[in-house]
Specification:
With about 120 residues, the chain is mainly alpha-helical. It is built from 6 helices and 4 strands, in the order αβααβαββαα. Strands 1-2 form a two-stranded parallel ribbon. Strands 3-4 form a two-stranded antiparallel sheet. α1 packs across α3 and α2 crosses α3. The longest helix has 11 residues. It is globular. The chain starts with 9 loop residues before the first helix and ends with a helix. The protein binds a DNA duplex (13 and 13 nucleotides) through α2, α3 and β2.
Amino acid sequence: MEPKADKLTFFELVYAIVRLVPKGRVTTYGAIANSLGAKGSSRMVGWAMNASHSVKPLVPAQRVVNRNGMLTGKHHFGGSNLMQKLLESEGVIVINDKVVDFDKIFWDPAKELKP
DNA sequence: GAGGTGACTGCGA
DNA sequence: CTCGCAGCCACCT
């Protein structure tokens, strides 16, 4: 099924933010939700990622991790270490399914996109 | 039409 | 300190 483009849904907004994440940087579900004005709806951000596989262009969901910097969604990338590999390919160090120096490479859309 | 789920987060005990 | 619970909105059965 294909989502209607009649009106922008929460998903579309989430995809836009994730695609804006610079290479070598990561963000969190809460940060995205916060930038969208739905800081309480962090779950929806994750749900949007679930559909990211059906969205084009592909959304770099690997850059989106939980508040702890842990790759909670790596299982949805094929059940393998693909997500970690992608992050490492971009220069992000990942150990034990967790992003190293997460605080340093953390990219806050609400802050970066803020005028 | 109604109920349940979910790649999360924040707060309480 | 750690563990548990409730809240948020959209999609699926």
